[in-house]
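Sorry to interrupt, but I need a hand with the structure work. Go ahead and set the record down below:
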Amino acid sequence: MPEYLTTRELADLLRIGERKAYDLASSGEVPCVRAMGKLLFPRADIIAWLNASRSGPDVADPPLPPIVAGSHDPLLDWALRESGSGLATYYDGSFDGLTRLADRRAQAAALHIHEDAGFNIRSLRDAVAEAPVVLVEIGKRQRGLLLSPGTTGVTGFADLAGRRVILRQDSAASQRLFDAQLAQHGLSRDDLDPLPVCARTEEELAIALHDGKAEVGFGLVAMAGLYGVQFVPTHSERLDLAIWRRAYFDAPMQSLMDFLHSDRFARRATEFGGYDLTQLGKVHHNGASG
């Protein structure tokens, strides 16, 4: 299902006529928004409205799969392995992670979505409304242009025209930010010479640059030292972990959270470089329902 339903899609979901769907919106009985003279229904809010209307005995929620989805971060990925939490990973970008979180195909998602007023909160609310999900900060990290060894003449986005670039998948928050930065400099992907395949993790991107397959990629400074590539800083961003509240208190997630607050994790962050863990553990959103 799309993030916002049309009147027709709402009617199909509720198995009612389209006229009845209009009447529900007009009377204020269902959550809706009006944009450009058109009625749209936030999918997450509609699901929450249906759940609130349910009667009968309480039924236990199905178990959440022990999966952390979303953005690939080398430091968090290392912590997931070293903590012994037993949590599996599925990295396909922040926006894919939000979808999997909302559909309960993951119990947590790593996010670094740049928003006008900050990071991640609006996007999380758009995906799950006020569902019982907590958004916990992992840390700040430095992002910018990674350059293959020997590449010169690139000091910012304005210098990327005609360059051989490795992109990320469209569901990655870094790719959407990269596209927005190109647009601000009067460029688009058509002005680049992109590789035919994208890098699905930060590590894949750095390896491609190290091997000389591309000249430029948009990645983390933490990868620069590890793979011997150059770094041009452009952005600071916040990496958060969005977690279903009932999974947060389970043993696997508690093992991970305990490890994140360990001296060993702090030392590893220093070794990687480009991380600021000052606000590690700060809660930026805590869904009210549930």
Q: What stands out?
A: The first strand starts at residue 4 and ends at 5. The chain has a mean pLDDT of 93. The domain at 67-138+237-286 is CATH 3.40.190.10 (D-Maltodextrin-Binding Protein; domain 2). Residues 173-184 form the longest helix (12 residues).
